[in-house]
Amino acid sequence: MTSLTLKWVAVISMLIDHIGVALVPSGTPTYFVCRAIGRLAFPLFAYLIAEGYFYTKNYKWYIGRLLIFAFISEIPFDLLRHGDFPVWNNQNVLLTFVIALAALYFFDRFAVADNRLPALLTLLIAALAAQLFNADYGAFGILLVFVFYFHRGRPRTMVMWYSVIVIVFAALNAYAALPYINNVIQSLISGFALFALIPIIIYCKNRKKGYAAPSWKYFFYVFYPAHMMLLFILARM
User: Fold this and answer.
1) Which of 92, 28, 65 is nearest to 229 (CA)?
2) pTM reported for the whole predicted model
3) Domain boundaries in the chain?
């Protein structure tokens, strides 16, 4: 298992998820299957963001690249998810990752200086910012990136904390969705994110990058807004 393989698994599961959102009637068995498969995507991307931060040689360009594509992706994201633009109550997931990367940068600097309280406040501020900006996955997304980064090299504690966060998140969403059964089912489906641990644990055994031409790095960035716009057009047709 390589990081390139993780990217492909994440991209394919995201595509299946968004096909379910755009082209499959809500509440049908096929719809729920698509959404369940799609729960693998975000944790895998969150893990890759944490790995990317650890390995990057140019942090400014890494976060800058994400920020650029966050702006580019907002139009197709709003159109696919809400059928309108602009929509201010839900921003695309790349903004979540931008906030997480900024938080990791400051967290590291405080942690190196042994300033534990400012380091903890950095995490809390990032989680609040993701909620206030209505970034996709919100505080949950920030916590996952931090769990993957902070417990890097400690797979058992990573698995434990990841599992706790996913289960609590699914339970809280299911409770908030009561008494609407379809919404409750969809909330509980978020628990399928636990299966993302399988490829992550396999990858952790060797941490191979996998070969890809330099241009492929940008393919994964471009694919995010491009596939959403294509699915929006297909849905309208």
Assistant:
1) 92
2) 0.93
3) 3-236
